[in-house]
Amino acid sequence: MLLGCIADDFTGATDLANNLVRSGMRTLQTIGVPNTPLAADVDAVVVALKSRTIAAAEAVAQSLAALEWLKRAGCRQFYFKYCSTFDSTPQGNIGPVAEALMQALGARIAIACPAFPTNARTIYMGNLFVGEVPLSESGMRHHPLTPMSDANLVRVLQAQSRSKVGLVPWTAVAAGDQAIRARFAALSSEGVRLAVVDAITDADLHAIAAACADHPLITAGSGVAIGLPGNFHRAGLLPPRADAAELPRVPGLAAVISGSCSQATNGQVAHWMDSGRPAIRIDPFEIARGTDVAARALRQAAALLDAGPVLFYATAAPEEVRTVQAELGVGEAGAMVEQALARIAQGLIARGVTRLVVAGGETAGAVVQALGVEALKIGPQIDPGVPWTATQGAHPILLALKSGNFGSRDFFVKSLEQLDA
Ligand code: ADP
């Protein structure tokens, strides 16, 4: 075991795990801190927490518990993963969690670098850009939970940290890992413990990763991780792996469950139906009237599943969702639909489904919880940020968990076909 990661949300954890697998590390993602020791033979583990917007003290406690588990699993280096838009409030949680992990690991300095140039997140002079605009002018300005009104990460991080925050400017980053290390040393001598690091290109991320090879802790988005396998290769700790994304071959039936109402998912549901494949609609009003919609949908699907995959969808256009929400309440409607879809997932597994695509972040969370999934081995990528995964144990299930706006229009068809390719 080389790398132990702590991610502050579920889809962010998958994004990081996906990057590690693509760079040649066998990676397991756990849902929360496991109760049992690590059993899988992997190079990296990503513990997915749900700590982005909870109280700072609770985020610290959960992150330290994850760290303890990862230490016992034998990790040599640790990674605290947050969002590429640095989603946090002035009270935390990035600063407090980073400081607590540094203290637990005896780290003198740690980077803070959410840059992910592939996704148009770049940092210059400590200012985070989303595409062409500063973070504070991006959509993140209006985020319901973590509005970001300042693009200057040195200021943002300083406001939520006790330690001194400094900057490794792009001039040092562009000069390579030795120059970055020299800057770390200079900052350390000024008493800086958290260093925001500029990054504009993937080459910058590789240089930053190389400069952090001996850091006990890295705090970053998922971008910096692309350079870490190279460090382990150079140190002779990680052999080249052609099988990093390998998953067990699992025969069985297939299905798709869609609870996301994003534009992309609406397109994916339309594509599925346009291709003439079977689809069963889940109507929130019917659930609200007390009909056992899940049981009926499973009965309807029973005869269809042997012939090919079936789609179950609550996915609807924005106007329709607004009507449902106005009548049933936003939270109530969401919970009702999630519960019905999670029960459908349980029924499908009992019916012999072993390949399941789930659309929607919250929906995926509900399904994974209902199925009692504790850990997922990360497999090959389907679309950027979305890999196939496999549950652990004697009877693995293959899961593709797709959040909101991810995936091409033919994602449902493509992901299932990929398994037989
Ligand atoms: P995304 O990743 O696109 O945000 P989520 O699953 O996280 O998708 O969130 C979608 C939410 O909308 C879920 O709580 C789901 O139960 C709810 N939902 C799904 N279909 C409907 C619908 N027709 N009307 C109202 N809410 C719905």
Short structural summary:
By secondary structure, the chain is of the alpha/beta class.
Q: How many beta strands in the DSSP annotation?
A: 18
Question: Would you state the CATH class of the largest domain?
Answer: Alpha Beta
Distance between the termini: 31 Å
What percent strand?
15-25%
| Main sheet properties | 15 strands, mixed
Query: Any idea what the shape is?
Result: globular
In CATH, the homologous superfamily of the largest domain goes by the name: Putative sugar-binding, N-terminal domain
Kindly state the mean pLDDT as a whole number? Answer: 95
Number of domains: 2
Tell me which CATH architecture of the largest domain applies here: 3-Layer(aba) Sandwich
Q: Could you give the order of strands across the largest sheet?
A: 9-10-5-11-4-1-3-2-16-17-18-15-12-14-13
Describe this structure in words.
Strands 9-10-5-11-4-1-3-2-16-17-18-15-12-14-13 form a 15-stranded mixed sheet, with helices on both faces. It has a three-stranded antiparallel sheet with strand order 6-7-8, with no helix packed on it. It has two domains: 3-234, Rossmann fold; 253-420, Four-carbon acid sugar kinase, nucleotide binding domain (Molybdenum Cofactor Biosythetic Enzyme, Chain A). The model has no long low-confidence stretch (mean pLDDT 95). By secondary structure, it is an alpha/beta fold. The two termini are 31 Å apart. The chain has helices spanning 10-22, 56-72, 94-105, 153-159, 170-174, 177-189, 202-211, 228-234, 263-274, 284-288, 293-302, 318-328, 330-350, 361-370, 411-420; strands at 3-7, 27-31, 44-48, 77-81, 110-113, 121-124, 127-130, 133-134, 164-168, 192-197, 217-220, 253-258, 279-281, 310-313, 353-359, 375-383, 386-391, 398-402. Helices cover 39% and strands 21% of the residues. The longest helix is centred in the C-terminal third of the chain and has 21 residues, at 330-350. Helix 2 (56-72) runs parallel beside helix 3, helix 6 (177-189) packs across helix 7 and helix 13 packs across helix 14. It is globular. A hairpin with a 6-residue loop joins strand 17 (386-391) and strand 18. Adenosine-5'-diphosphate binds next to helix 12, helix 13 and helix 14.
